[in-house]
Amino acid sequence: MNPTTASAKVLALHIGRALHIESTSTGEWWDKPWDTGFYKQPQTGPCWLGYEGFRSDEQADRRYHGGSEKAVCVYPAEHYPYWREALEYPDLPHGAFGENLTIEGLPETEICIGDRFSLGEAVVQVSQPRQPCWKLARRWQVKDLPLQVERTGFTGYYFRVLHHGHVRPGDTLELTQRPFFEWTIARCNEVMHHGKGGPGAARALAECPLLSSSWKDGLWMRAEKMAAGSPGKRREQPG
After folding, report:
1. Above 60 in pLDDT, residue 238?
2. What is the pLDDT of residues 90-103, one digit of tens each?
3. If we measure between CA atoms, which residue out of 131, 142, 40, 134 comes closest to residue 89?
4. pTM for this entry
């Protein structure tokens, strides 16, 4: 990975209101009432990006979703061919992972915590990997889909917004600053989900100042458990 240059293109931009989905009484594990902001719609024109996300975009559970450190959910387009085959959904559309931005050119191996990008009129910064939750399983009726996402490392990631402005489909992300080239999203996932590097790596990542506060807390707890001889299973953190 080149530590000084990176760019990507926004292939799709999705926003949507939170919805309440009723049960259809099939008795299936996924067929229960739930509230979700997963059903986002593709946009064709400019959308205003503020400090807590796109205008008119909503999250059903603000405890775990949204907020300034998870203002924009991003998913690499490079993963869609894999999922279309693995899930046997040949028409799986961009936006299927609930992301705001589907981008091409910056998979998890090529982007780092703290990376700062110009994006249309806005400026954004990478804050943390995405942790898949049960809503992803419910949306596509695949019970172990969150675990599949963790195993593959195809998680996507979040941006915080440093400067607001309009963003359009087709805009380019241009890297302007990379302070922590050692902490790729892929490496963060290995430390959190697979315990790579043991408690030392968990503590080192937790000390990265531009990592989100929720990930810092989770990593410190994990490191303490690992050092005490516990498996140190990560705290469940949807979304």
Report:
1. no
2. 999 999 999 999 99
3. 142
4. 0.93
Task: Kindly give, in sequence order, each residue whose CB lies less than 8 Å from that of residue 30, ignoring residues fewer than 6 positions away.
Answer: 137, 138, 141, 143
Helix residue spans in the chain (DSSP H): 80-86, 134-140, 145-152, 185-194, 198-206, 213-227
pLDDT value for 62 = 62
DSSP state, 71? S
- Of how many residues is the chain composed? 239
- How confident is the model over 43-72, as pLDDT tens digits? 999 999 999 999 999 987 766 677 899 999
d(CA 158, CA 165): 17
Question: Which domains are present in the chain?
Answer: 7-180 (2.40.33.20), 187-227 (no CATH)
Question: How much is the average pLDDT of 24-33?
Answer: 94
DSSP readout, 182-235? T-BHHHHHHHHHH-TTHHHHHHHHHT-TTS-HHHHHHHHHHHHHHHTTS--PPP
User: Which pLDDT band holds residue 228 (cuts at 50, 70, 90)?
Assistant: confident
Using left for φ > 0, alpha for ψ between -120 and 50, and beta otherwise, residue 237 falls in: beta
Residue 123, classed as helix, strand or coil, is: strand
What is the rounded CA–CA span in Å between residue 209 and residue 211? Answer: 6
d(CA 100, CA 155) in angstroms, rounded, equals 14
Place of tokens 């503020």: 50
Distance CA 165, CA 160 (A): 13
Residues 127 and 66 sit within 8 Å (Cβ to Cβ): no
**Sign of the four-CA dihedral 115, 131, 15, 7:** positive
